[in-house]
Amino acid sequence: xxxxxxxxxxxxxxxxxxxxxxxxxxxxxxxxxxxxxxxxxxxxxxxxxxxxxxxxxxxxxxxxxxxxxxxxxxxxxxxxxxxxxxxxxxxxxxxxxxxxxxxxxxxxxxxxxxxxxxxxxxxxxxxxxxxxxxxxxxxxxxxxxxxxxxxxxxxxxxxxxxxxxxxxxxxxxxxxxxxxxxxxxxxxxxxxxxxxxxxxxxxxxxxxxxxxxxxxxxxxxxxxxxxxxxxxxxxxxxxx
Length: 240
Prior knowledge:
The chain is an alpha/beta fold. Helices cover 30% and strands 18% of the residues. The protein has a domain at 1-31 and 81-122 and 167-240: 3-Layer(aba) Sandwich (Rossmann fold), CATH 3.40.50.
């Protein structure tokens, strides 16, 4: 039995599947990931700051114009569509097998694909909030703005994404733990499992099947029942 057949058998036998997704699930939709050799953090940028600073709370507060210039250039996902892996996860939800998706991604592609139980532990580009009056704005308002997007009240608008130096949204994190603890199968898809505290969620899984599908090795490979180092599209295009 090959690895595709083993994965299919595990899915067929499971009824409470949770998917934990990272940037690797969206690269096949045309988005860059962060840490690979071709990723965002490996690119030369026109600023005298590293990307970790440019996407930090400190930069947002103290160098807001630079923050937004970098953010708009690199994190606009508005013309990106879900790919076969996103669609397969929607299929699993429709079959009442998938109980939730925990994602490190901020691109909103799981929601766009139609999944309903999506826990965006690093936030999303699709909602933005005025830090003065809490009025919310969509992604189009922010990405179509000139320079710094401002609220009707004159306040500064902040994307609802978790920046460096900020904590994870507590409610999403708690819901993620609850989902993983109920899962009989956990599929880690396109995540290096090196970004904490999100990667630590894996430790709450005590179900039957832990599956890791990622191009490169992860620190949790030796704990998994099945490990596949390949592109996600190559795998999910062969499942039924």
